[in-house]
Design the sequence.
């Protein structure tokens, strides 16, 4: 891998078209200058054209040499790539859950494009996806509700959703590039009730960062931070805009105001993490995106991106599994369960897993986890097997109970 990285670095420095473009520009300049000379005096046109042949020829030869140099670096880099990443046959399986769901795939692709702000591309894709098949037939294949109906498979139906994401990207641009929190704060106030129902603290966190920005971000006429003026604006902002958060966030508000006493020496104060956090803007942007998408009934990350990334992580394991199954002449017989563990990152684990301590089997929808009155949990099949529909003793404590007293746990 070190050799590949070194060659990549060499290609990025030397395998560019900068010198080629310079030589082409020199040729263009020669031709433009000759044209102007001929236009000024047509009688010398033949002489000027004759003088132009050699410089143009030399310039074009320089361009050819430049391109040869670039091709040499590209060829070497390509050979190293082929040597490092050899072509492998992708795992094949008889059961393909998505082969009969083209509408589902089209929706996933269109939603990804909309979420990424590629509205014109999404519109074109939706038009192409419905060219040979009416949107009514596509909607028959899928049951859509809420925001998903805005997507549909018709570019006109995506207008409402497009406006929502356009607004989100505008707010994120103001937040990240302009350090302007006002659009985000205004949106959070409009959605205050919905955010409150979700238990979100986004509105307060936006106001808190606005306080920090006023406190340390204000600059005087010389372009230097003006702590005194910043404190005045920050205190005024707390009184006018954050006072209604006092019942729920009194301690946090006290900490913000208490930082004024440490104003000349913030880097060594207990409040340095709050006021000198370089990642605060990016973290809040991620939190805003998550809440914005949640109110639309969507996940914070694109499902298509998550599925593609998880598939890329799992692919080497499935390739190895296929080789082992071929050598041992065995088959993958379970449709809804993979026979190997795939080490996905924690952020890609969306479902809780419970393994019955009695049967050592993973619970399913047909065999859910059941909690007995004593608080211990076993799988439903283990519960019925232990109890035989009568009172029984818990396998982990002296308490006795009846199967009907057990409660199903939703994980």
Sequence:
């Amino acid at each position: 891998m070190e050799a590949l990285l070194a060659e990549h670095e060499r290609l990025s420095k030397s395998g560019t078209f900068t010198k080629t473009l310079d030589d082409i520009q020199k040729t263009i300049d020669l031709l433009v200058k000759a044209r102007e000379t001929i236009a000024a005096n047509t009688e010398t046109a033949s002489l000027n054209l004759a003088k132009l042949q050699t410089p143009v020829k030399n310039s074009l030869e320089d361009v050819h040499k430049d391109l040869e140099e670039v091709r040499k670096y590209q060829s070497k880099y390509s050979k190293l790539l082929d040597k490092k990443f050899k072509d492998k046959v992708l795992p094949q399986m008889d059961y393909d859950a998505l082969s009969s769901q083209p509408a589902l795939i089209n929706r996933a692709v269109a939603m990804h494009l909309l979420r990424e702000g590629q509205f014109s591309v999404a519109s074109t894709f939706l038009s192409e996806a419905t060219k040979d098949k009416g949107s009514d037939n596509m909607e028959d294949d899928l049951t859509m509700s809420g925001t998903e109906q805005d997507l549909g498979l018709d570019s006109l139906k995506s207008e409402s959703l497009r406006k929502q994401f356009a607004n989100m990207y505008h707010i994120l641009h103001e937040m990240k590039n302009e350090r302007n929190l006002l659009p985000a704060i205004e949106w959070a106030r409009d959605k205050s009730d919905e955010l409150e129902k979700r238990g979100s603290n986004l509105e307060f966190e936006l106001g808190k960062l606005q306080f920090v920005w006023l406190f340390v971000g204000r600059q005087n006429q010389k372009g230097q931070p003006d702590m005194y003026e910043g404190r005045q604006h920050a205190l005024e902002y707390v009184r006018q805009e954050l006072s209604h958060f006092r019942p729920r966030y009194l301690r946090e508000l006290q900490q913000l105001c208490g930082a004024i006493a440490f104003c000349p020496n913030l880097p060594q104060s207990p409040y340095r993490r709050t006021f000198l956090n370089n990642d605060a803007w990016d973290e809040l942007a991620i939190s805003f995106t998550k809440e914005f998408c949640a109110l639309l009934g969507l996940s914070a990350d694109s499902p298509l991106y998550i599925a593609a990334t998880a598939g890329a992580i799992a692919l080497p394991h499935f390739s190895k599994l296929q080789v082992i199954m071929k050598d041992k002449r065995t088959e993958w017989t379970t449709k809804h369960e993979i026979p190997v563990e795939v080490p996905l990152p924690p952020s890609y684990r969306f479902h809780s897993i419970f393994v019955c301590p009695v049967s050592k089997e993973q619970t399913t929808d047909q065999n859910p986890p059941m909690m007995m009155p004593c608080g211990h949990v076993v799988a439903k099949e283990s519960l019925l097997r232990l109890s035989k529909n009568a009172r029984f003793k818990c396998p982990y404590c002296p308490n006795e109970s009846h199967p009907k007293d057990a409660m199903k746990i939703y994980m």
